[in-house]
Write a structure and sequence with these properties.
about 500 residues, two-stranded antiparallel ribbon, about 40% helix
Amino acid sequence: MPEFPQVDRPRSSPAGPATAASASPLVGVPLAWPAAADDLPRRFPSRAALAAELQRQFPAALGPGPGQPPAAGLSPIPGGRRAAEARLAAIAPDRYGRSRNHLEGGVTRLSPYIRHGVLTLAEVRDAVFTWLQGSGRPRREAEKLINELGWRDYWQRLWRQRGDAIWHDLEPLKTGHAPSAYAAELPDDLRHGRTGLACMDAFSAELTGTGWLHNHARMWLAAYVVHWRRVRWQAGARWFLQHLLDGDPASNNLSWQWVASSFSTKPYLFNRANLERYGGGPFCAGCSAAAAGTCPFEASYEELQAQLFAPGAQPIPAGSPSGSVDPSSSAGGAPAAALPSRPILWIHGEALGPANPALRANPGQPALFVFDDALIAGQTATSGDGSNAGGAASPLSLKRLAFLQECLLELPVTIRRGDVAAELLAFAHRHGADAIVTSAGVDPRFEAIRTRLATALPVQVLPPEPFVALAEKETDLGRFGRYWRRAEPRVWAGVPVQGA
């Protein structure tokens, strides 16, 4: 489907960090300004030491299981620009287009880096065009990957328009069931991978153990949560955002709404044949439910529709939707009229790469990233925990924090924790700053923090290079098709490639 970030399955085990690389020292790039005694460390003897420090700093974060070392709470997927560039250099758009729906298919694994701006949508777009021109392949070989980048841009634009409304049903459900028929909380057997269904338990274990899950697995797991277990999509969305390294409320929530049918014309549904076709068959062969003849997915779509939905509901059959690479694009925030002479830079989680326009425009200026204590602990009512939509708040996982930390070590930035606005203003005072410069953000929490900052200092917001330039009057979004009819010709304009 076009909403969930499309990635492939990591080859490492869920324990992940027990590798040679995990024992290497991690040292942040030098800063051009003095550190304060209570800044968070930027030097670690190993990845395990980084995990231990984060667990000490953020005890509310979801860490490893009881009795496990902190390193067991890390993902095998490293953060940072070097890792992102290695993945970008390995893209194969032609293979992506042919095999992306298979769990072992040729997807990009770029989504965590794009979600946090380590790579921008524009950089990935240009890399695809470079591949296309260098290979001499026709345009059609790369169209699917470019289309999926468009999905990410579309979701970000929709989030900018709708804000925290993405935590609520955007449309009525098409399942024939009232919202009250769905449970508010995720059952423990799902959360801990003890449903007795080999496929669902494997997906749950991979999600929580690695911070990673293939797009098709996300679709199957979401459909099982919402339609078979009759749980509200918000509970599943919060669960995913706790763990996914590419967890982004726009792509994530609107994906769950697509499955649930609160932002699609029909509910999404799959059966065992679809899972075996795209999953390679390892789950059913060892599943006790399949052996006993009690697999809930062993049925035709017509039979499943009759079991799960009220008469008249029309499910979307599995296999028709596609997935998306998870980029991060935002616009807005016009630059201040006068350029500040002594700014500090606010670095946030949507722009953790060298293309950050604030870093580019102000090299060497003091820069700060703040780990948001309230967001990490699941105490904020917006942008990640979904508590404004009902249900319990959700703390973030140690895997997500470690990924961010690894990205930050490759940037010239001071790292602190606490209340974001208060820490930024204190940092500005320490450096005698006359303004704060930052990159545009889509998350509504960004605007709330910017508003607080602006009561004390001017805030200059710089937009990143867009994936595609669309005038404001052209961004009445509707469904993706409306957006893409406008965007696609402009994305491809001027690219000298062979025809379709």
